[in-house]
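Dear colleague,

Thank you for sharing your sequence with our group. We've completed the structure prediction you requested, and as agreed, I am returning the results in plain text so they can be pasted directly into your records. Please verify that the sequence below matches your submission; if there's any discrepancy, let me know and we will rerun it promptly.
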Amino acid sequence: MWFLTGTKKINHKLLNSTTMYFDYKINIYAIKLFAVLSIVYSCHHTHIMNTQPIHSGSEMLYQYKWNLAELNGEKVTTDSTNNAHLLFYPGKVNSVSGSTGCNRLTGTIELSGVNKIKFSPLATTKMACQGQNESQFLIALAQVNKWSIINSQLLLNNGNILVAKLQGVAVGQPK
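Please find the predicted structure tokens below.
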């Protein structure tokens, strides 16, 4: 009889250790599940709390020299020395400079919301130019309130109306 009693005790001990092993595994899984859910919740929670406006790809503005290709629906022809263009400088986030095709221009921009842009009145040099689209270009820039970049082209709009199309050339590369 003592043999059976001893066996029952051993089985009982074996049963307790097996139960403790499964309890341990369940606790480990519960801890892992809690950790994963905490990470997922904190990432989701952080995203909800981010209420700052996002400039969709505004860093792209600073990677190119933007040569004027089209103005008010008409293609613009340029030569290699005097082409109208815009440059946005990464170190001067709200600054713009460039050329009207004859005169140099400089000023500031305001980026707000998603793809909204406003050009300040731009200062230009006053050289005499013939046959240039200078005044049309400056008037167009004053009307711009939206921008987008598609296939290395900067599209400047007044609402849904395309005002100017500029072709991007990586800074430091030839036109």
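Summary note from our side: The helical segments are 2-49, 134-143.

Kind regards,
the structure core
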